[in-house]
């Protein structure tokens, strides 16, 4: 995990207690800047802007919305997820990370105007619809545990309502601060998992698979519901055996009744990420598989390869857990039919399927207002 070497503070947020608190905890050089371009120019002109963007922390205000709809991908079945936009980028370094080419330039950024965030959360929760929201789309949810008390504020806030769940998704083991918090099973701790081979060659600075499962087992002991995301699954010799072993390891420690959902997704990336992977991860072989452009312009495996991987992993999961909810992140209905034997429409739609699982595992109110249509 990259260490922060310099903190840049937006002049508009200087002196705020939260800013002072973070500066004290990180204890590196800090500078006040009037405009983010001062920082962006430094990052852009460095030899490896992605690596540089992971070593500087920019503290600023979120001037847009904290709560956003997940953009999804056109032509693929979407789960109607909401994003809680706490900050951007990550101190870990995965070859396939879309954030490397998503931000121009990529910069580790944390939003400190949290009164606005909690006002938006209050409004969001007041609607009393089933909702699933997570902080792990534009960053890793738990890297911020090292320097902030964010989870210690968010988890109790979500515990006081009964129709929405907060998902904290990570590849770290930074869970010690959430022990003893009042959560009421309304916060899901989720781990992205992969085979040890993929982790070793493509996920720099992340926790090992065993360490992630240990952390999940710890959270299970504290009563938190859990989720696992097999994403991106990569096709290589013996990958099916390796993915089966990952499944077996998870179920050797985790009870199916504590798993809200497991998502499956195979490797996919926008064409401009390929050059970034080639130059930053020359040892990675993942971009050289049988990849074709999908309906959304992203490169992905041929459909039959995807189906074969999904079938193998689903079968491994079903050997341990007949009922746990498994879904695809961004797949078409034909693949759903081929792998699961039904389409999402047959089950009332993917958002409904995931809401039902949250109702059951997170013990949500079974009778809130109808789902909000946005
Ligand atoms: S952990 Fe997630 S956010 Fe961080 S570099 Fe890896 S893929 Fe990107």
Please report the total strand number as a whole number.
18
In percent, how much strand structure appears in the residues?
15-25%
**What level of helicity do the residues show?**
25-40%
CATH architecture field of one domain:
Alpha-Beta Horseshoe
Task: Give the terminus-to-terminus CA distance.
Answer: 37 Å
Radius of gyration: 20 Å
Shape: globular
Strand order of the largest sheet: 4-5-9-10-11-13-14-18
Mean pLDDT: 94
Q: Which ligands occur here?
A: iron/sulfur cluster
Low-confidence stretches: none
| CATH C-level label of one domain | Alpha Beta
Largest sheet: 8 strands, mixed
Q: From the helix content, strand content and strand pairing, which structural class follows?
A: alpha/beta
What is the helix tally? 13
CATH fold node name of one domain: pyruvate-formate lyase- activating enzyme
What would the keywords be for this entry?
18 strands; 13 helices; single chain; pyruvate-formate lyase- activating enzyme; 8-stranded mixed β-sheet; 36% helix; alpha/beta; 374 residues; binds iron/sulfur cluster; 5-stranded mixed β-sheet
Describe this entry's structure for a reader.
With 374 residues, the protein is an alpha/beta fold. It has a domain at 70-84 and 117-361: pyruvate-formate lyase- activating enzyme, CATH 3.80.30.30. The chain has 13 helices and 18 strands. Bound molecules: iron/sulfur cluster (SF4). Iron/sulfur cluster binds at residues 90, 92-94, 97, 99, 139-140, 171, 206.
């Amino acid at each position: 995990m990259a260490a922060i070497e310099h903190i840049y503070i937006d002049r508009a947020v200087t002196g705020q207690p939260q800013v002072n608190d973070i500066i004290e905890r990180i204890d590196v050089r800090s500078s006040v800047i009037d405009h983010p371009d001062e920082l962006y120019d430094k990052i852009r002109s460095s030899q490896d802007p992605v690596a540089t963007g992971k070593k500087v922390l920019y503290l600023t205000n979120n001037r847009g919305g904290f709560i956003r709809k997940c953009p999804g991908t056109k032509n693929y079945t979407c789960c109607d997820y909401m994003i809680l936009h706490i900050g951007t980028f990550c101190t870990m370094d995965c070859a396939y990370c879309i954030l490397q080419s998503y931000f121009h330039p990529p910069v580790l950024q944390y939003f400190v105007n949290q009164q606005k965030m909690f006002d938006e959360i209050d409004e969001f929760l007041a609607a009393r619809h089933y909702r699933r929201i997570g902080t792990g789309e534009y960053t890793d949810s738990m890297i911020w545990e090292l320097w902030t008390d964010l989870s210690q504020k968010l988890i109790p806030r979500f515990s006081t309502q009964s129709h929405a769940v907060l998902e904290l998704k990570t590849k770290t083991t930074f869970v010690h601060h959430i022990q003893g918090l009042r959560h009421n099973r309304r916060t899901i701790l989720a781990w992205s998992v992969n085979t040890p081979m993929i982790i070793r060659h493509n996920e720099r600075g992340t926790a090992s698979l065993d360490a992630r499962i240990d952390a999940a087992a710890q959270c299970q002991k504290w009563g938190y519901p859990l989720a696992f995301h097999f994403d991106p699954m990569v096709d290589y010799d013996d990958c099916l055996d390796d993915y089966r072993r990952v499944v077996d390891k998870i179920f050797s420690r985790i009870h199916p009744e504590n798993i809200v959902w497991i998502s499956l997704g195979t490797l996919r990336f926008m064409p401009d990420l390929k050059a970034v992977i080639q130059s930053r991860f020359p040892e990675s072989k993942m971009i050289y598989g049988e990849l074709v452009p999908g309906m959304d312009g992203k490169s992905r495996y041929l459909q039959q390869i995807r189906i074969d991987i999904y079938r193998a992993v689903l079968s491994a999961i079903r050997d341990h857990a007949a009922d746990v909810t498994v879904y695809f992140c961004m797949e078409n209905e034909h693949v759903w039919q081929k792998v699961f034997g039904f389409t999402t429409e047959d089950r009332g739609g993917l958002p409904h399927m995931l809401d039902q699982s949250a109702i059951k595992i997170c013990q949500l109110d079974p009778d809130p207002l109808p789902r909000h249509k946005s």
